[in-house]
């Protein structure tokens, strides 16, 4: 199923199907199949996002301009609390403790 979704350019669904197959192969101890499945997931896609969701990427791009959570919320038409959650997730995924460090990380990794 994952291969079919890849051919249809539905990468999100393909990733879900491929991940499910990988879990089954892992339970079976089928290491050769695990390596085959791992090669199907486009590495460049996950490398570019560094584990961030599309919305977290949007928040990061605006955050990097120096805007406050309130300004980000207004721009994206979401609540300030939601922005705060996204910022916390970004900091956690990057392993940094400040907005400035997250911005530096994003620039260093060509994310913005």
Distance between the termini: 33 Å
Task: Give the number of DSSP strands.
Answer: 0
Helical proportion, percent range: over 70%
Q: Quote the beta fraction.
A: under 5%
The domain tally reads 2
Mean pLDDT across residues: 87
Number of helices: 8
Low-confidence stretches: none
The major pleated sheet works out as: none
Name the structural class: mainly alpha
Order of helices and strands: HHHHHHHH
CATH superfamily of the largest domain: Winged helix-like DNA-binding domain superfamily/Winged helix DNA-binding domain
Computed CA radius of gyration, to the nearest angstrom: 17 Å
- Give the CA-based shape: elongated
In the CATH hierarchy, the architecture of the largest domain is Orthogonal Bundle
Oligomer state equals single chain
CATH topology value of the largest domain: Arc Repressor Mutant, subunit A
InterPro entries: Sig_transdc_resp-reg_C-effctor (IPR016032), Tscrpt_reg_LuxR_C (IPR000792), WH-like_DNA-bd_sf (IPR036388)
Pfam family, one: GerE
Protein name: Response regulator transcription factor
Keywords: DNA-binding, Transcription, Transcription regulation
Q: Please, could you describe this protein's structure?
A:
With 112 residues, the chain is mainly alpha-helical. It folds into 2 domains: 2-41, no CATH class; 49-108, Arc Repressor Mutant, subunit A (Orthogonal Bundle). Helix content is 75%, strand content 0%. The chain contains 8 helices and no strands. The protein has helices spanning 2-7, 11-28, 31-40, 43-49, 54-63, 69-76, 80-94, 99-108. Helix 5 crosses helix 7 (80-94), helix 6 packs across helix 7 and helix 7 (80-94) packs across helix 8 (99-108).
């Amino acid at each position: 199923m994952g291969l079919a979704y890849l051919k249809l350019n539905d990468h999100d669904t393909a990733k879900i199907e491929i991940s499910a197959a990988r879990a089954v192969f892992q339970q079976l101890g089928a290491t050769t199949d695990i390596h085959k499945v791992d090669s199907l997931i486009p590495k460049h896609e996950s490398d570019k996002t560094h584990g961030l969701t599309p919305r977290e990427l949007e928040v990061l791009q605006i955050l990097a301009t120096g805007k406050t959570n309130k300004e980000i919320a207004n721009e994206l038409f979401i609540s300030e609390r939601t922005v705060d959650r996204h910022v916390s997730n970004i900091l956690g995924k990057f392993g940094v403790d400040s907005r400035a460090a997250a911005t530096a990380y994003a620039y260093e990794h060509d994310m913005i």
